[in-house]
Amino acid sequence: MSTRKPTAPAAAVIPARPGPQQTPDTADATEVANAVVPGEGASQRTAAERATVRLRDAPARERSDDLPRYAPEWLRLREPADAAARAHALLDPLRSRLAELPGRADGLVVHDVGCGTGSMGRWLAPLLDGAQHWVLHDRDPYLLHFAAVAAPRTAADGSRVTVETRRGDLARLTPQALTGAALVTASALLDVLTAEEVGTLAAVCAAAGCPALLTLSVAGRVDLTPAHPLDAEITAAFNDHQRRTGMLGPDAVTVAAEAFAGHGAAVRAHPSPWRLGPDEAGLTVQWLRGWVGAAVEQRPELRERADRYLDERLAACAAGQLRVVVHHTDLLALCRPTGGAP
């Protein structure tokens, strides 16, 4: 995965993993809408469409110097690979649990933590039946606007999907905030959290009695074809970089599984690898630059060899000769319903 720049403060709800670029410092609501849905500005959407979106505490021009800026361009670039990688095998047990829930007039309430530009909702909402209300959580109001305007409108069976945004930190996510929640989701989040933050997430979900679907956590393994003598060294340096400042990196799924299991949840894990070939060359190039760059940042003595390595890998990618598998893991934690049996 790409590097995490700049380093976010502890206890933050981190958007989907940042890419090698940062976002501009200014954008109004129309610019955001046009960036996500070309040709569909805020003023062009119908009243019915506007009614499905409720924004909370996220004015378009709100800015804070302490907020990391993650490029929507990178998040959009990786979205197709994310969608192809997520583990469909976890959907049937999730659907079974959701079917056991008592019906609500407004349908399923889903909280997407660290939502970034909202790719998790765009993937999952159309795969679930029934009306849904998505609550999108992120620290960055800029990304929250992207997520809101590009949110899906219909579920798998044509039922209505609505959305609201909440700006906030994982540290302030409480069981009360999840009252009535049917599901908590996150994508590319666990590995940029600390063990304490993961423990908080597990405790809150368990206290609220709602399942959690946590996708695309890095597994610490990368397979490149053709192989290169420096592959293993770059991978190890990158993994060490991911663990800096207490982040879990490739240990995240193990720590999360233990945390949820400690609260009595039934936990399932499933591989969700990116498989990148010639058709994904644009993503591969950006991923390579970020991956090698993080390794060099962690181990500066690699720089000279890593520069040559990167040049060779980029040339192979341009020639359509490079294949990359970036291993991830998806996690489904079926917490005990509040006041009920597991």
Describe this structure in words.
Helices cover 35% and strands 19% of the residues. With 342 residues, the chain is α/β, with parallel strands linked by helices. Strands 1, 2, 3, 4, 5, 6, 7, 8 and 9 form a 9-stranded mixed sheet that branches. Helix 7 (195-208) links the parallel strand 5 and strand 6. The longest helix has 18 residues, at 281-298. The chain is globular and about 60 Å long. The two termini are 35 Å apart.
Topology:
Elements: H1 29-36, H2 47-50, E1 53-56, H3 72-85, H4 91-99, E2 108-113, H5 119-124, E3 132-138, H6 141-149, E4 161-167, E5 183-187, H7 195-208, E6 212-225, H8 231-242, H9 252-262, E7 266-271, E8 274-276, H10 281-298, H11 303-318, E9 323-334
Parallel strand pairs: 1-4, 2-3, 2-5, 3-4, 5-6
Antiparallel strand pairs: 6-9, 7-9, 8-9
Helix pairs in contact: 1-6, 7-9, 8-10, 10-11
Task: Quickly list its features.
9-stranded mixed sheet, 342 residues, globular, alpha/beta
Radius of gyration: 20 Å
Percent range of helical residues: 25-40%
Give the rounded overall mean pLDDT.
81
User: Can you write the helix and strand succession as a string?
Assistant: HHEHHEHEHEEHEHHEEHHE
> What low-confidence regions span 5 or more consecutive residues with pLDDT below 50?
1-68
Largest sheet composition: 9 strands, mixed
How many helices? The count is: 11
Number of distinct beta strands: 9
